[in-house]
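Input sequence (82 aa), recorded before submission:
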Amino acid sequence: MSGKIRGMSTVVDLRSALSVIATTYNRGLGTKVGVEAQDFLRRVKTLLLPVPAGLQVVGNGGDGTAAFCPWIGVLDPDTSKM
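Predicted structure, token format:
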């Protein structure tokens, strides 16, 4: 991993990004700003994850209600819209 996750530096490997969610996500904390895992999922699109050029990285921990299964997705903007 390059940089630090908690400070959300911009260069992160995929394993580290998934590890942050696996170790910090707590559905009971909700989706508010200031919840570490939720903040990370909102910012995942700004990280420089090692994905092929042209693909888009997105994350979601729920909209209003925290998700049972938070996710990070790698999407092709030609076939997927977020």
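Checked by second reader. The chain has two helices and two strands.
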